[in-house]
Records
---
Amino acid sequence: MKVRLLDIAHARSGDKGDTANVGVIALEPEWYPVLERYLTLDRVTQHFHGIITGPIERYELPNLRALNFLLHGALDGGGTLSLKTDAQGKVFSTAMLRMVLDVPDEEARAAHLPGMKAWPSYTRSPKE
Amino acid sequence: MTQPQTLGVPQRFDKRVRVASGQGFWGDWLEAPRRQVEGGDVDYLMLDYLAEVTMSILQKQKERDPNTGYARDFVGAIESVLPAVAKRGVRVIANAGGVNPPACAAAIRAVAQKHGVSDAIRIGVVTGDDLLPRLDELIAGGHPLANMETGEPLSTVRDRVLSANAYIGSTPIVEALGKGANIVITGRSTDTALTMAPLRFEFGWAADDWDRLAAGIIAGHIIECGAQCSGGNCLYDWQNIPDLANVGYPIVDGSPDGSFVIYKHPDTGGRISVPSVTEQLVYEMGDPHSYITPDVIADFTSIHLEPAGENRVRVFGIEGRPPTDSLKVSIAYRAGFKAVGTLVYSWPDALPKAELADRVLRERLDRLGVRVEHILTEFVGVSATHGPLAGEVHDPPEVQLRIGVRGPDKAAIERFTREIAPLVLNGPPSVTGFAGGRPKVEEIVAYWPALIDKRVVQTRVEVLT
């Protein structure tokens, strides 16, 4: 099943020099294992291919139900050197949320993952 | 730096200490400090003013006028909270001193005098972080101050260095509090030390109580960006976050065991929730196992969050370990010039028009022999923030063409700025949005992160009475 990252996670990004960090957080506790298994280094590297110039690092924070990615060479030199609108990498978070993950049907059903809908203009309101 | 075992007051296990965040960066909401001390009882007000290149801006100001070089907003902030400091015992900790903490202290003293409360104000001044006067001595002494990202020694840009400051930790702030200061002014303290220091002081945490020190650092990380943990810039359920116009800034309610609750004053807007705090925790995160500070290395994979009532999140379980023998040094140096020009093209075919304008401009620069080190074109409304990930945008109502250049040759950058406006009359049609005039040429002050042996940095604390 195709699952949009936007439907199962929220995110925030920031910078350190020419590196953008993107923290991706599961919207529901039961969805964190899906992130851990399918939001892989390979998939994220593929997603940002041609957009960043350096490698990517990936860290797991099961305690926060979050993954942290470091995208090197993402900010056109970074800081004051960068000519980019997003020189501080503030919206790499939403660029990450454009990803679509492939999750086996059975696993998707077991975790009650939402299926693909039309792209919404806002984040899904999670159940509290 | 020598680390005294215990600098604070004796431990009491029922005690709670409230540290309020009133400023997340220089330029943050002017109302926030006053709202934090008037909205309910707090013990400390923490104000963070310094970003990576702020020190160099302040250094330039100080070169022009030796009485400047600190965050001027801080004077207004103190004025707005003076009654709470003078009469209610709220203590203020700020890294507003920039490259000139003594001048900052003098300005604060003048404000206190003006309001007739100078007897009630004891200003603690922390210095010793400024390495600029010692730079050549340090390099000669075998401290290469190599760039942490590129490995290059500082000697390659030495003649262009504007400022150099070691990030210092909580110890001198704790010392200033111990000496009775109720306003503590530092230079390049870490943002997190501003919050951890009062907790360490009040609870008497030892300098090697790694877990509690780490907890204080993480409390600091959560509130150091002001409202960014209490509903500001929060993606999670953003459309239902209430009353952002009246957003409440975060407050740490700390306990002696290192656990704490993040909350905000009643009758304020925004939202403090596990998701809002988590978003702030991952902000600017590197390797989560090792959040390195001068005091302690905090492990973000040990943090536990739980809801603790409306707009309250409890944080506990934090683990830390001993710090490294180095301090990070923030160095700023002149790195050439840049300029960014923009024009707006309208429907129909806004994007092809903007693309043509970009080609025309580049061809003209080429024919003029204008050489720049780097040129970057973005199409705002189409691909500026997400690049090719945004996919195809079908005939948008308008597109902003945004072209930036940078390079060492100021004349080339100047020439570029003269080539934008002419496009309005001699380039593609349906163009507007040039009212701002010619783009400004800016000198680039770039950031050079380095490490230095802790032992060569001696901080000093003075309490002015």
---
Amino acid sequence: MIDEIGHFALVLALCIAVIQATVPLYGAAKGDGALIALARPAALAQFVFVATAFFALMHAYATSDFSMLNVAANSSSMKPLLYKITGVWSNHEGSMVLWVFMLSLFGAAVAVFSNNLPPALRARVLAVQAMIGVGFLLFILFTSNPFLRLFPVPVDGNGLNPILEDRGLAFHPPCLYAGYVGFSISFCFAIAALIEGRVDPAWARWVRPWTLAAWCALTVGIAMGSWWSYYTLGWGGWWYWDPVENASFMPWIIGTALLHSAIVVEKRDTLKAWTILLAILTFSLSLIGTFLVRSGVLTSVHAFASDPRRGVFILLLLGVATGGALLLFAIRAPSLQGGGLFAPISREGGLLLNNLLLTTAAATVLLGTLYPLFLDVVSKQKVSVGPPFFNMTFVPIMIPLLIAMAVGPMMSWKRGDLWAALQRLKLGFAIAAGAAVLTMIVMGFKSVGAACGLALAAWILTAVIVEWAGRIRLFSEPLGSSFRRAVRLPRAAWGMSFAHAGMAIVVAGITGSSAWTVEKIENVKPGGSVELAGYTIALDAVKDVRGPDYIATRADMRLLKGDELIAQMHPEKRFFPLENGNQTDVAIRTNLLADVYAVIGDADGKGSYTLRLYYNPLVPLIWLGAATMAFGGLVSLSDRRHRVGAPRRARIVAAAAAQPAE
Amino acid sequence: MRRWFYLLPIVVFGLMAAGFYVGLGIDSNVLPSALINEEAPTFDLPPLPGSDKGFSSADLQGHVSLVNTFASWCGPCRMEHPVLNALAARKQVPIYGINYKDTGEAANGWIKSLGDPYTRIGMDSGRVGIDWGVYGVPETFIVDKTGHIRYKHVGPLSEADIDDKIMPLVAKLQK
Amino acid sequence: MTPLSLRGAHGATKQSRAAVKSIATSLLRCARKEVVKLAACLAILLGLCGPAHAVRPDEMLADPVLEARARDIGKELRCLVCRNQSIDDSEADLAHDLRVLVRDRLKAGDTNRQAIDYIRARYGDFVLLKPPFEVATWLLWGGPALVLLIGGLGIARYLRRRSGLTDPPPLSPDEKRRLADMLDTGAER
């Protein structure tokens, strides 16, 4: 019964979306207030219905209702409740429902939190949002319906892929989708602006919080995915440039460019057409990512099982949404004339450089991901593009960006003084050089690359602190006055400092991971031990244990430094009989600056077990840095200035009347 | 900025979408062989236990042959086996078997219960398979009279594959 | 008790999965059985291709220099069973065979390039994780630089056009005189 309600709710959501997509748009064109006002309740109603469907599906999973095909194919009664629930989005159909859930959630959020928007703009934004909803709801109902029944009802389901039975991974998709799909709002704002034919600083101010929210979610989502692969896949790697990873990374890169470009629109009323294009491209990359993952054009371990019919449908959606948007852009954008002029060396120039490098980086990732496909289409040759390509091309593009990241905030608008900015960064030079030299002394003269990496991180971090210190006039005014300034600093400024600092921390983590990982692979008998980077790892015993839906080989190990016991570690190798698959449960001991990472492998038949042990210095910084960046984004999001809207006409008239002209 | 600059994004996107559309029709899982038109590798594989006829590259000289990799642990091999039996019965082209990463007893049992379409069978621990560019089973190669590989079929053979792809090429090479 | 029978088989299916899938086939009206089979194969491979850096202690060479070279090569070769992993990371039998082969070639005196080419000759360019520098891949390797160049030129052009607008036309003599008058009058007040 609940399943039928869920199914029906989806159909109702589709009907509402159709109304929401057309009526307010017409109303905005005609200036009809009543029709415009329909947008908000429609968006809220759409969310209510989609949420009903989503929770109906979740209910079916939680109660192991195997009369539903989707539940039977992707869950089993032996799963712990958490994994029954997260099994909802472990497959194509369920994850599409999560997709439209996020879409309608953001739509409802715009409906609720947009009192500062002019009604006509809001109506247009929600209408375009609904159009996307219509597309995806049609897709779900016609090609990927999770509410189909199964008869005869099987006794138990097929189970969940063992790799997905993990606490961290459970929440990775919702976070990722919140980011992915949240960028649709920026897209809708861009289209609405193009329809209206007007992009002004107020528009940039309004679009910013939504872009920030989506960006924060995507940052956390990608970081979670990366962290999960680190502690699950058992080899200490955390990024493989897999097509699906790239599909989530590209919107993030362009989203970052968008965040920076929108600042220029807001402050200087220029770069409008470019910012609109970025807003369109960010969500388009999300759509391209959805296409790549679900259509089967690319082989990836992450990809869902594919059906060419679905592929064509998504391509159609992509064509209409992105093609339509870019067509509108080609027609309308030339009439967006900019204001503010600026010299090349200025903050605007710095942000332009930021955009140039980020766009090139995204284009590089896109090129590498799609090249095998396009070469095959054009000339039937098969090549493969793997991590070596991306590492060789992406890193050289990011390095100038990271260097410039320190200088940019020091420049003033319109016309900046590069020399003065560099003078302020003398301390940064010194600390970066010192870090490089120290690294080479401590770790040996061959580690030039690593030295540069740490120098870069130090450079950025010092610049962030110097910039902040400059804003609060630290040491040039009495401390009390500095403190007052700090408290009154706009939150966006704090956000920027945290976000840039987070980036520096990530760079440090990446450097450590690439340069100084120590690996030991050995056959060890219980009672033996291994030396690793100053630690001793003693293998005490290996037992067989049983879990709710698996049997495992579990090792009892002690991590010692000299004679001091630091931790007990219990890596496992699990076998899931129902799904006939394996999962490695890695044991990690972290002190937030380095990880000791232990994996138990196969027995060699002679009483020894293969142990894979890694010492990963600085790796935790990767995720700490990402968390700091997301935190910076949240801080920025809470800035009060985002809630100030366009002054309403009535108030201006009243104010003018109240003050007699001088 | 000039007008045409604004058209650039949609043009690039259009090309990309066209590429995607064509790409949907391509099966990204099948890899073409790197050895097409190359000479078949030199090898000498031991026979199954109880047989004295192994399989070596010398056996491929002078006539068109089919070389089929199979294993008793492979499900799709089981599916294609009747097709191979039927083809062998037609006596138009000899089929040689490479038993890939298998045990002698299991292979013998498999052949006994399912039928033996093979003129000769050689046992391979995997090394010869690498020389042939094998990355899974079953895979079937067409080798011409001079010992050059002319065609590779990945996956189980169906009747349609035999009639539409394999036999026409075999007939052509046999002329 | 790892299910070797399913690893490395083209289009393998499993009994219960086949049952659900065949019902799914008819219900979803997905008439393409090949797609379902392939999907099942991929689904199974998902379970097998996942975890663990797969180099085994008994594969590793005694000479650390050679072993390090073998590892570097391993990072550049793609496992063809578990497509998204290098041979060093994949647990598939083929990956194991290739790892052993690479080490044998190195012991026989091949350079890194020769060992890679040996495998490339048998499996084609697809086995390389680092695409070769050829005519077919010029656009790939040159792409980033090209984008950077085009972007840079675009920005340069944009800035030059905008800066052309900042310079107002010079004042005519009449306008200059009027400006001087205005300034004088202003200074007196």
---
Amino acid sequence: MLTSDLVRATVYKASLRPSFLAEGDSAWLQSAEELLEMFRRAVGSPIAFIRDEMVEAIEGEDLPVVWKGLARVLEARCHLVPAEKQVTWQARLDLFARAAILRQNSGFDAEKRAELVSMESAQIGANSLEFLEALYADVPGHETISAFEDISAGRLLEEYNLALAQGVVLRSEWLEVELQKGSTRQIRNLITAAKFHQLHWDLTADIDQTEKNIRIRFDGPMSLFDSTTKYGIRLACFLPTALAVEEAKISASLVWGKRPARKVIWEHHGSKVSFPNRHRLAPPAHPEIKGLHKLWQSTENDWELDACCQVLPFGDSQFWIPDYLLKNRSDGRKVFVEILADWKKDRLTKMIQGLSESPEIPWLLVAKGSSKRAGFDHPGLGWYRSFPSPEKLLLWVESRAIKPLHG
Amino acid sequence: MINAPAIDPVLVRFVCGTLTLGGMGPPLIEELATRFSEMRVDPKDGAWRLPAIRYRQLIEFFVAKGIAFLDQARAYNRRNFNLADDRTPFEHQSEAIASWWNSGGRGLVVLPTGTGKSLVANLAIQKTGRPSLVVCPTIDLMHQWHIQLSKTFGEEVGLAGGGFLDWREITVSTYDSAYLHVEKWGNRFGLIVFDEAHHLPGPTTQLAARGAIAPFRLGLTATPEREDGSHVVMADLIGPLVYERGIHELSGEHLADYQTNLVWVDLSGEERQQYDYEACLLKDYLATKGYSLGSSGGWNRFIRESSRSPEARRAFKSFLVQRRILQQCEAKMQAVEDLLERHHKDRVLLFTADNATVYKVAKRFLVPALTHHTKPAERKEILQAFHDGRLPVLATSRVLNEGVDVPSAGVAIVLSGSGTVREHVQRLGRILRKHEGKNAVLHELVVRGTKEEFVSRRRRNHDAYQ
């Protein structure tokens, strides 16, 4: 993700539009290709070579910000190894101390300098030129690029756009994903990834229109409720999953500019900007959620386990998206199950209270930890330590499942 | 207006850098919402929340209105801090602390480097009598404060930053660690001292100030203004400007006497030819496009164009080549050599604009380089050796611009730098600390007949250089 100094955006009144690089723009593609060429050429050279190549001054503040951003994305694709010959910091300070004594006695000139350097060079088996190269070879920038994971220019623009979007959400108070024609699988992916990254969210849904209109608002790192860097990075890591949903409308409220409370909206919907295609990638998920399906299939029982994609209204305008639906093949009893690898007491108790007030939903929550440590318990709550075992789950399911009134 | 006080006290708690308010009736909620525009209800648990920085105003409001409240937010108590430091404060230090206290123990004190800002902080800690956190921008400064505070108050002082996380009743932290851990310490200190307070308005660093309840706040800086104009938020984060003295007012008695010296140098024939050629290319490009770099939005337009068009990129390269010539030209190197010879008995700081030039200078003159890449052990040794004279010359770009105490430094040679007044004043400040009858001198190297003349005029636009 791009750091704040590399984020480019256009601000007009209360709206902000990140300056994404449009797909197929020949000028950007040419710039990307030029940079890629530099990185390809640089394999076997110190990383500083790139910086010299990039108009000789990537560390200067004035290099075009887009180039710096593109280079940042490419630097992450470089494998670096330390320089072969290095002078230790103690050795170089010794050298400088000897030079200082000469200078204080007015005996430091070009000849003395050459003598000093030559003596030191011999100690590391190098000539004077190599020695001077090695003098600060331990400083970042002197590592050698041993390999570069090449990509196409188009892909570089996509990676840049993603890194830019991630840089933007680091300044968000909230991030909202709206699915107007979203499939239940997409909703499931979003929620699974959000749970994995331990995000806080609120979901609103228009159930009357068969779950077509879903809006999920995630707390951002600049929110009054979650103002931490770690949280921002988690939200940024979640972003690719949201961007992979083509129909999603994404907006955010950002803290931007000089005034700390300024609200700016960023909308990404229907634009020509493209991001890395991650459709085929499964969203990140807790191993408990990923692995339970497989484990369940290896266990003999009369229950069918399906990844559940329903959005269930419960309590006072709340919504629940369980992980699984377990259905008994013989008698049709069923129960919705959610695995909670991370949870907060306030939220969990509120959820239990809401679900308890919705008798039409057969529910079971399986949480990591123990009732003793949590300080509370409930018949609809099962506890596990490292991984929920199918045997235990079966017992809880039997006690919680009910036969639906209407099929 | 509230007609009757609430029967149950309002419960004020500190949660993750915010205050939660419980047990309030609708009239009180309405009044608080009017008074505190940032008050919001947390949809996750239904609690009303305020940023922790509003703690003092909130409590003052409850007290003024006679509203009963139960304060579970504050996790510290009053206590006495004994100053082991028997120095008598100078007049400007006493005035600064009196002015700050009269402004309710909130506000910004602006004093030049080397005029005893740390004693002002010590006095504030003693005066306030509350557990105190000192926040500073770098690890070096953090350790410097740690030594000073431990000695002054004769007790264990905590550290948060550089791998340490040890919260005590007096603690020193970096800005980075302070905002990263504000959830942990935000209710444990009654006073926060923001050293080099101009760093605070950064978008993330200011979270440290917003997430803490500390009712007493002191900002210390020599250069309050920021180029981006965001220094205006300091009034909210710390308090108003309560005291200010300039370098001229304090030099001689409290600061070393000093002189500034412009050293004019000329490009070699080859360098001049290349400089003029590149200048011409740049000028032609800008003339074709019909704007100048100094015009409103001109620089941004140039940068934007150079991202996309090869012609603009060539013009941009011209700009960078000119800059490199100015920063590293042979005449400047020769001038440095002469100055080092002239000051061979002095402690000299060599300032450059960028790290590449620092390392070039270090290799050429065999002097240590101090940059943000320098590892802590080496940095510590370099500073110690500079102090005791084993390494009397140091090359650096920006890390020594502020804060780090190098009292023995008496000579500064500015090879290159930005055009900002702040940087130039800070660099001068490095050599002004009183030290054994020191007469400080700052040499600024300027290439004749180039844009450096303009840059030099701009950065010297401060009374310290008049």
